[in-house]
Specification:
The structure is a single chain. This protein is an alpha/beta fold. It is built from 20 helices and 8 strands. Strands 3-2-4-1-5-6-7-8 form an 8-stranded mixed β-sheet, with helices on both faces. Helix 9 links the parallel strand 5 and strand 6. It binds guanosine-5'-diphosphate and magnesium ion. Guanosine-5'-diphosphate (GDP) binds next to helix 5.
């Protein structure tokens, strides 16, 4: 995990609260000291550390626990809330609006990860169903052209660029006409070692030309406390609307960059957590703090729910099918298994008496390529929603779509598929458990279908 050390020490502090017999001023002082130490070690600036711990202390001393929570739980909630506010607060995770083409321009100094991030972003949105292209306007680094071209191939998106050109703005202009065909255009730019006059002039001109919808500053986590100053300078030049912190995998000190930029008013949008194209995470302060503290946020809760689900082997899919219980996770696993073994019609052929049952045609459609989108959607659902998908309506649809970055139409598709599969399973239930076991044996041995949690022994 990112910022492991910080997470560990914060979790130790919280464990101390849980272990203590009662909450008094002495314990609260100790807690505040512990948190200060942890944050300072992660390179958060002294001023910010004092600010956040002062708030925690004031609230801890003053507030009474909410109904249903004990003092300790309340204290932990205060820590969680204040740390979240500190990291950009209730900022919703970023979603690209429906504007075609939506243009994101990346800016930043040399070596901070702009080009890598351009590839990662293209990959991220391509996987979520957008039509994406990247354009290289860096005329400073001769290697930049091929670097981004290679990444575009990896992400399977279109690439624009001109290898030997000199002027960034005219490269952009040359391809601009073609961009209307895309949902998203990601513009990579040149950096320098520092924000020099030359870079400022070049960036300002390109910025006017591109007129991007978002301008994101790409900054490496190891810049530490100079992050705020850097963010401010780029903001003055290019009106920065968001920040991406890269290389959070490589430092224990990323707290500096993460917190310093959020105070400039440009929210952190994504974090880079490795060199590979998939090593990019949407930044969500609530989820991030939840993970750091190892507690009750939606995402952490989901992780736990999924772990619990795989542990509860007693409730394996086979049994659930027979009982008529069937969750979204089961559907996902079923689809994953089918990818390996072919469409549901094949399975149907193996079930005695099943050939006679009429199955709705659409339900048999193989949902190739949907699996990944579904996984993103499911990652944004609560345990309850996964188990009772019928709850997913109205604002929940919006929330899940936003949280996952996947269009609501895909979510509706998933829910439709779920309903249809459930219908089929009801039909299959007509067959006896013995038939089911026979089928599993035919499909090959003890373990049954690979990836499908069915064991005929039960
Ligand atoms: P640019 O000059 O801003 O375009 O930076 P590059 O994209 O060329 O990246 C500079 C170096 O940082 C490359 O070696 C990348 O592989 C590396 N890099 C970028 N992002 C990350 C990240 O999130 N984690 C790690 N470990 N390395 C990264
Ligand atoms: Mg570059």
């Amino acid at each position: 995990m990112v910022l492991d050390k910080l997470g560990n020490s914060l979790r130790n502090t919280l464990a101390k609260i849980t272990r203590s017999l009662f909450i008094d001023e002495k314990l609260i002082n100790e807690l505040v000291k512990d948190i200060q130490r942890s944050l300072l070690q992660a390179d958060v600036s002294v001023r910010l550390v004092l600010e956040v711990t002062k708030k925690i202390k004031e609230r801890a001393l003053k507030e009474k626990a909410l109904k249903g929570l004990d003092q300790k739980e309340h204290l932990i909630t205060i820590v969680y809330e204040e740390l979240t506010a500190f990291l950009g607060g209730m900022n919703e995770p970023f979603v690209i609006p429906k504007k075609k083409p939506f243009i994101i321009m990346l800016v930043g100094l040399f070596g901070n990860g702009k080009t890598t991030t351009a590839g990662k972003l293209a990959n991220y949105y391509k996987k979520r169903g957008s039509k994406v292209a990247v354009i290289q306007t860096d005329t400073w680094r001769p290697a930049a052209y091929h670097q981004l071209k290679t990444l575009a191939t990896q992400a399977n998106v279109d690439f624009f660029g001109k290898e030997k050109a000199k002027d960034p703005s005219s490269i952009y202009q040359e391809f601009q006409q073609q961009f209307t065909n895309y949902d998203l255009i990601i513009v990579d730019t040149a950096g320098r070692d520092a924000l020099s006059e030359e870079l400022i002039t070049e960036l300002a001109t390109l910025n006017d030309k591109v007129n991007a919808d978002e301008r994101w500053l790409v900054m490496s986590a190891d810049v530490g406390q100079t992050a705020q100053q850097q963010a401010q300078q780029f903001h003055d030049t290019a009106n920065v609307t968001g920040v991406i912190i890269t290389k959070l995998d490589g430092t224990a000190k990323g707290g500096g960059a993460l917190t310093a930029c959020s105070v400039t008013g440009a929210p952190v949008r994504f974090i880079g957590v490795g060199e590979k194209i998939d090593d990019l995470e949407l930044f969500n302060p609530k989820g991030f703090v939840g993970q750091l503290l190892g507690m009750g946020d939606l995402e952490a809760l989901l992780d736990k729910a999924q772990a619990a689900i795989s542990e509860e082997e007693a409730q394996d899919l086979g049994k659930k099918l027979l009982k008529g219980e069937f969750s979204l996770i089961d559907l996902y696993e079923q689809m994953q298994a089918m990818k390996k073994m072919g469409p549901i019609t094949k399975i149907a052929e193996m079930i005695p008496g099943f050939n006679n049952i009429k199955i709705p045609k659409e339900a048999l459609q193989h949902q190739e390529g949907k699996l990944e989108l579904w996984r993103h959607l499911m990652d944004s659902m609560t345990k309850k929603e996964l188990e009772e998908p019928d709850l997913i309506k109205g604002t929940r649809i919006e929330r899940i779509s936003k949280g996952s970055g996947v269009p609501a139409s895909e979510l509706r598709g998933l829910l439709k598929q779920y309903k249809q599969s459930k219908k089929i399973l009801k039909l299959m239930k007509g067959g006896s458990e013995q038939d089911m076991q026979k089928m599993m044996r035919r499909m090959g041995g003890r373990g049954g279908i690979p990836g499908l949690k069915f064991s005929p022994q039960h």
